[in-house]
Write a structure and sequence with these properties.
Elements lengths: L2 H32 L9 H5 L4 H18 L11 H25 L2 H6 L4 H27 L5 H4 L17 H21 L1 H14 L5 E7 L5 E7 L23 H8 L7 H7 L3 E3 L6 H10 L12 E3 L1 H5 L6 H16 L3 H17 L4
Parallel strand pairs: 3-4
Antiparallel strand pairs: 1-2
Helix pairs in contact: 1-3, 1-6, 3-4, 4-6, 6-8, 8-11, 12-14
């Protein structure tokens, strides 16, 4: 059996047991929901003692595997990104729920009348979380144990041979753990921030003409360009003569833009870049090619920062803050190199902790 086939078996097994776990969690949660106040709630062990319940759960999980297969998730499993997993899981769960509702409608009026419709979104939501977490966990484990075939992920390709950072190596396991955290945090952050973005969008539109979302090309992981999305904090065509960094009291910044920049609210759409895989929650801030060319002339080892995904926040932003010129960018880069040489989950949490206090105190520019 080839590598693709072994991976497919792993995903099928994970999907099956995660679906079993999701159904078990649903049964216990549903019993709590429908129980009368003051009454004893059945445990999972008691539920499983009912005739035919274990068989129904097992058969249901097998049917969901068939649905996952028919929706195409098990095709090219060795080349899936977390976004593919998210879309594939959502597609499979929605198809399963639709099929369940259709079979209920076809079974007759008595079944339709007895169906508790509150259970449908609950079952779908629990199954989605269990299956997606299982798939994402398996993918992260595979990445952390994969042979180092992609040398670009492990070794620093471009560096100054006279610089002390030339031996910098970033483990694949760290990359996998960070990506797993990025998906969870960005997904939750995007859902929670929807009302805030809606209000800010209305104010932006009312204060100045032009689009609400502003995009700009930045250079990311392995020097790949990507579009960075932000809420527009400046007037339209703020750089008619070429790239120009913002300074204190910049007249191009709109009133709501000044407020957003102070509390970093304009960077909320960066979470979409994180979810897509262009960025990470923690990592060196991405710069434009125009400034990168000027930085490298003075500090060739700047290319080290491209060995990881750029971040929504960084150790450089925490310790130095915004840079108003190339010299400031080079100074801030020292902290980013320090982060790269000491990358760990605890370091990321430390950066996030300090960033939250920076946002609360309104220290943005």
């Amino acid at each position: 059996m080839d590598h693709e086939g072994r991976l497919r078996i792993c995903y099928v097994l994970v999907d099956y047991f995660c679906t079993l776990a999701g159904v078990a969690v649903f049964l216990v949660s549903y019993c709590h929901m429908i129980s009368e106040p003051g009454c004893d709630v059945m445990s999972l062990w008691q539920i499983m003692h009912f005739p035919s319940v274990p068989a129904i759960i097992a058969v249901f999980s097998l049917l969901m595997l068939l649905i996952y297969y028919l929706t195409g998730f098990y095709i090219h499993v060795g080349h899936k990104s977390h976004m593919d997993e998210l879309a594939g899981t959502l597609k499979g769960i929605v198809a399963g729920v639709v099929l369940f509702c259709f079979s209920t409608l076809m079974s007759g009026p008595a079944q339709i009348k007895s169906l508790d419709y509150r259970a449908i979104p609950m079952l779908g939501g629990i199954l989605f979380l269990c299956v997606f977490m299982g798939r994402a966990g398996l993918t992260s484990w595979i990445l952390s144990n994969r042979c180092h075939k992609d040398i670009g992920r492990k070794e620093i390709a471009d560096y100054d041979p006279h610089d002390e950072c030339d031996s910098l190596v970033i483990p694949d396991s760290m990359i996998a753990i960070k990506r797993f955290m990025d998906i969870i945090i960005s997904s939750v952050g995007l859902m929670v921030s929807v009302p805030v973005v809606a209000v800010l969008s209305c104010i932006i539109k009312a204060q100045s003409p032009g689009p609400v979302i502003y995009s700009q090309e930045r250079i990311g992981f392995m020097r790949r360009p990507f579009r960075l999305f932000k809420l527009r904090s400046m007037i339209v065509d703020a750089e008619p003569d070429g790239p120009l960094l913002a300074v204190a009291g910049d007249r191009r910044v709109t009133p709501i833009g000044r407020f957003m920049r102070k509390y970093h609210l304009d960077e909320i759409p960066n979470l979409w870049n994180v979810l897509k895989g262009d960025m990470s929650i923690v990592g060196p801030r991405p710069e434009r090619q125009y400034y990168i060319e000027r930085i490298i002339k003075l500090a060739p080892h700047y290319t080290l920062v491209h060995q990881v995904r750029p971040g929504l926040t960084s150790w450089g932003m925490v310790k130095y803050g915004y840079a108003c010129d190339v010299a400031g960018m080079i100074e801030r880069m020292k902290y980013d190199i320090q982060y790269l040489r000491n990358m760990s989950l605890s370091f990321d949490l430390r950066v996030i902790y300090h960033t939250l206090f920076t946002v609360i105190r309104g220290e943005g520019k």
